[in-house]
Amino acid sequence: MRENRLRTLWKSGGAAVNGWLAVPNSFSAEVMANQGWDSLTIDLQHGVVDYQAMLGMLQAISTTNTVPVVRVPWLDPAHLMKALDAGAYGVICPMVNTREDAQRLVAYTHYAPRGTRSFGPVRALIYGGADYPQQADDTIVTFAMIETAQALDNLDDILSVEGLDAVYIGPSDLSLALGCRPVFDDVDPPVAQAIDHILARAKAHGLVAGIHNGDPRGALARVAKGFQFVTVSSDARIMAAGSQQLLSVMRSAPAAAPSSSTY
Fold this sequence. Notes:
Layout (H helix, E strand, L loop, with lengths): L4 H7 L4 E6 L4 H8 L5 E5 L7 H11 L5 E5 L5 H9 L4 E4 L5 H10 L15 H5 L3 H8 L1 E6 L2 H5 L1 H5 L6 E4 L1 H7 L11 H16 L3 E6 L2 H10 L3 E4 L2 H18 L11
Parallel strand pairs: 1-2, 1-8, 2-3, 3-4, 4-5, 5-6, 6-7, 7-8
């Protein structure tokens, strides 16, 4: 089966730099994948992406060594199973708040007898290889998002669920849950404390910790703390920032003097 380079990177102690795809287009996904991201996450929750667009984006990412990940809209077996059948090598599930939520997440992403995932890896066999059915459970990466006060209260119960590989922190939702400003990087003190607590408990349970970031400075600081999966910005934000940078130069340049030549 095709290697999941996230697992290989984490086993060596490294941190994965993850890109985020909110634009529903295979060509933009291909452009991003060719820049050298360790992984790219297609966002079905808040991105403007549907299933058909996701499929083309997964195919585009497959032209590179970048690991394809999908954030599903919700803890729903249909979304999770179809993302995996389409060839996602990792799934991020939002709003995992209880041990029961985490158990269902693991069940939906693993074949029997470990779980209840229905068999039908229609494209995953092409992407992963002929032995996908035998190797998928140990290759796919399952992330539970920790982003609510309820999840914090149940944190150790969630993290102790066998088969869960990683947690992913959404700083904005976590901030709102704690009565703070919804930001990615310079979070308020209660959120910073909660993030440190989640990281420490994930490590204690032997799980990888991931987190969303707005810029490289924040991501690097979190890697230094021990996060092994850091998202930096998104395709839409990068496109907007690049345009703003270019236009600021153009708008601030003095107007060219008209030529006095008759030619």
